[in-house]
Design a protein that fits this description.
- Helix content is 62%, strand content 5%.
- It contains 32 helices and eleven strands.
- The protein is mainly α.
- The chain is elongated and about 155 Å long.
- It has a three-stranded mixed sheet. Strands 5-7-6 form a three-stranded antiparallel sheet. Strands 9-11-10 form a three-stranded antiparallel sheet.
- α2 packs antiparallel against α3.
- It starts with 6 loop residues before the first helix and ends with a strand.
Length: 786
């Protein structure tokens, strides 16, 4: 071959070398000094002629292959340390270079196949208890051999194999191992059976050889040659089927013999075991398939049974949630892994809460306050379940909310019970409570209030109770009353609480007005200008000014009050009208109270706290002689008290516990001719005696009263709905039927939830009265008439 001398080689030739030559005996010779004058050496390339190329003939190639074949055999025989891999690589390189790649590839293929056939016969006769270990040993040896062979034939893999679209040497070895050993007639089924039996034994608590299992299954996945088809076809399909059958039978048997909490613990441990099996020896691609089967057979298939089970099923766990919170949490965590079962769990929670609430409502004799406390306890109980066991899941919170809404809005009883509960809190329940405790209690009340649809019913009832607390001065904290109104305003808007806030403002204003009047009265008393005023001063009066329209008190014709009370009332009226010109005062004698000093005998002296009507009745007896009687008709004529109210107040004065008056006739009823006299033998251990009024039929919160919406509220709803329709149509001028229904429902939802039929009746009424009309071409389109 021609040779080219490069500039680099020329530079090396320019260097001067001093070499010392020594004989074999060590005698020194004369130094030979070679000196080259670089200035005289020309810088040029030297091109040498090509050497003659010698083509490798077939016989030479056969000889080289024989050496390579014997080397492969030696590698199989574990004698690789005796070989020169550099020389073997060069021989394989030359064979491929001289176009003998076919001979080399086919020779290697035949050699590997021949060797593996003999190995397959050896493996096939192995007993079952040694087969798995033998296969693993042969696989490891084959891997090592093929890696060495691949290194020797690396040049063939890089050039010959891709050019001729052949299988790489290592893949060729895998393919040969799969066809000769892994799929051998006496190995294939036995190997699979051993693998499945080992897994079953491990599930039953026995120990197995994880190394052999991992090696065998890794071998199957490797034999797929860049895929897991062999692993799937030869093992995974059968493994998943066996897993399905195993857990199907085990779950049915275990659940029939154990409680729900025990089964949940078993499922939890089984899932952990199966997931740990993947890193131990299974292929990673098996994980999702295995998880799906385990979750299907252990969770999905038994969720209905777990919910309805009488052996501590889900519903039973909910009833004992305080003690069984861990089991409920475990059940939710397991169902969370199978999203389809979560809907069943949430629905069961909804039905259980609804049934528990309905059970409370079914007790008709339960006190309203007790009922509301029970509902609060129930809500707190299942709120803890959702927060702790269901991890505060939004869908579970929604289900519990819907359950409570269905219970609370079944009738008006819960609305009235809520008002009674608030009344109990404001009268005594919050006594001595810290600011934080008051806030906490009121927040619980507001939570129940949010569930209410009939907020207008609540408003009417709350107004009645608030009026009684304020007028009778029974509220223990004005600050708590204001906090409650602030919360109601936040929920329903300022219009909802306008009248309630006006009631509290009236009380505050009345206190200021009474302070001014008392100062004025004291000054008058000291001056003693006229006898009448001085006489009136002997009767103390405490007046509360109520703004008409704020208070749930219907004005009535004032009764005839005693002269001493009338004089005091007139004195205050004159004073007030001088202070506030343009106002009008109407005395509500049906709502006042009075304190009387009563002397029944020398020993029985009491201070009676009675209503204004009772005061008027009792004062009449002062003008009579001892033992003299009055008829009911004469009392009516003297006092002008309405007949029904008079009967109620007379009955209150004749009750066994407070028998201040004696009725001649027997029986509970009263007639116009019934005669009454003072009970001079009346006695009580208390000096101050409060005479309560007997209950009368009214818009009541008693649990035995009607649970339907009162007619007065229904009428108010009709007017409100019509006003809303007119307001919407006035703004829009025209609207489709469905759009109008939706908008009216949205605007009224803060007070009550109207039914579409109710809104439709209101629209029909407005059409009849010509507030609206239907469009001539579209009957479902309404047009506003100005």
């Amino acid at each position: 071959r021609s040779q080219i001398v490069t500039p680099h080689e020329a530079n090396r030739a320019r260097s001067c070398l001093n070499r010392s030559c020594t004989t074999q005996g060590g005698v020194s010779r004369n130094r030979c000094l070679l000196s080259i004058d670089m200035s005289t050496v020309p810088k040029k390339f030297v091109i040498k002629p090509f050497r003659a190329h010698c083509q490798m003939d077939k016989e030479q190639a056969q000889n080289i292959w024989k050496s390579l074949s014997s080397a492969v055999t030696e590698i199989y025989n574990k004698n690789a340390s005796l070989l020169s891999f550099e020389e073997l690589y060069r021989n394989a390189y030359n064979l491929v270079l001289h176009k003998h790649g076919d001979m080399l590839y086919e020779g290697v293929q035949d050699t590997v196949y021949t060797r593996l056939r003999s190995v397959a016969e050896q493996v096939a006769v192995c007993p079952d208890n040694q087969l798995l270990q033998e296969v693993c040993e042969q696989w490891k040896q084959h891997q090592v051999t093929m890696i060495m062979v691949r290194d020797i034939l690396m040049y063939m893999d890089r050039t010959y194999v891709p050019q001729n679209k052949k299988m790489a040497v290592y893949d060729l070895g895998l393919w040969a191992f799969r066809e000769t050993i892994a799929r051998h007639g006496q190995v294939r089924d036995r190997l699979r059976k051993l693998l499945l039996e080992n897994i079953r034994d491990e599930r039953l608590g026995r120990l197995i050889d994880h190394n052999c299992m991992k090696c065998a299954l890794y071998m199957l996945s490797e034999l797929g040659i860049d895929s897991s088809n062999v692993y799937e076809e030869e093992f995974e399909v059968y493994f998943l089927k066996d897993t399905c059958q195993f857990y199907r039978s085990e779950s049915h048997l275990f659940l029939s013999q154990n409680t729900c909490p025990d089964y949940l613990k078993k499922v939890e441990s089984r899932i952990c075991e199966e997931m740990q099996r993947v890193p131990n020896y299974l292929h990673a691609n098996t994980r999702p398939k295995l998880r799906h089967i385990v979750e299907t057979e252990l969770i999905s298939a038994h969720t209905p049974a777990l919910i309805e089970s009488k052996k501590s099923g889900f519903c039973d766990l909910l009833r004992q949630s305080e003690e069984k919170m861990a089991d409920i949490t475990r059940m939710y965590a397991l169902c969370f892994q199978v999203p389809a079962t979560l809907d069943l769990l949430r629905s069961a929670l909804h039905e259980h809460v609804r049934a528990a609430g309905q059970l409370l409502l079914n007790d008709e004799m339960k006190d309203p306050v007790v009922l509301l406390r029970s509902l609060l306890a129930l809500r707190e109980k299942y709120d803890n379940v959702v927060r702790n066991a269901f991890q505060g899941e939004n869908m579970a919170q929604k289900k519990v909310k819907e359950a409570f809404e269905s219970v609370i809005n079944a009738d008006t009883r819960c609305a009235s019970s809520l008002v009674a509960y608030i009344d109990e809190l404001m009268r005594s329940g919050l006594k001595g409570a810290a600011e934080g405790e008051v806030e906490c209690e009121l927040e619980k009340v507001i939570i129940i209030f949010r569930y209410l649809h009939d907020k207008d019913v609540f408003e009417v009832l709350y107004k009645q109770y608030l009026a009684k607390r304020l007028l009778n001065q029974r509220s223990i904290s004005s600050e708590a009353e204001r906090q409650m109104l602030v919360k109601l305003k936040r929920e329903c808007g300022y219009q909802y609480t306008t009248k309630l806030e006006g009631m509290i403002t009236d009380i505050r204003f009345s206190r200021g007005a009474m302070e001014k009047y008392n100062t004025h009265r004291d000054e008058k008393k000291m001056d003693e200008v006229d006898v009448k005023t001085a006489h009136a001063a002997s009767c103390d009066i405490d007046v509360t000014m109520l703004t008409a329209g704020y208070w749930p008190i219907h004005p009535a014709i004032p009764c005839v009050v005693p002269d001493v009370a009338a004089s005091a009332s007139e004195s205050f009226k004159n004073f007030y009208l001088k202070q506030h010109t343009g106002r009008k005062l109407t005395w509500l004698t049906s709502s006042g109270t009075a304190e009387l000093k009563a002397i029944f005998s020398d020993v029985a002296k009491h201070e009676l706290t009675v209503s204004t009507y009772q005061m008027c009745i009792l004062i009449l007896f002062n003008a009579l002689d001892f033992g003299e009687e009055l008829t009911m008709q004469s009392i009516t004529d003297a006092t002008k008290i309405p007949h029904n109210d008079l009967k109620r107040h007379l009955i209150s004065l004749c009750t066994p516990k407070y028998r201040i008056l004696l009725k001649r006739s027997k029986g509970k009823g009263f007639s116009s001719n019934d005669k009454l006299r003072v009970n001079n033998s009346f006695a009580s251990k208390l000096r101050r005696v409060r005479v309560p009024l007997v209950a009368m039929k009214e818009l009541s919160t008693h649990p035995n009263s009607s649970h339907s919406v009162p007619a007065a509220i229904e009428e108010d709803r009709r007017h409100l709905c019509e006003a809303t329709v007119v307001r919407i149509m006035k703004a829009r001028k025209q609207a489709q039927h469905n759009d109008l229904i939706a908008e009216v429902t949205r605007q009224l939802s803060q007070r009550f939830h109207p039914q579409p039929q109710f809104i439709k009746k209101c629209i029909e009424s407005l059409l009849e009265r010509e507030y609206l009309e239907r469009n001539a071409s579209d009957a479902r389109l309404y047009v506003y008439l100005a």
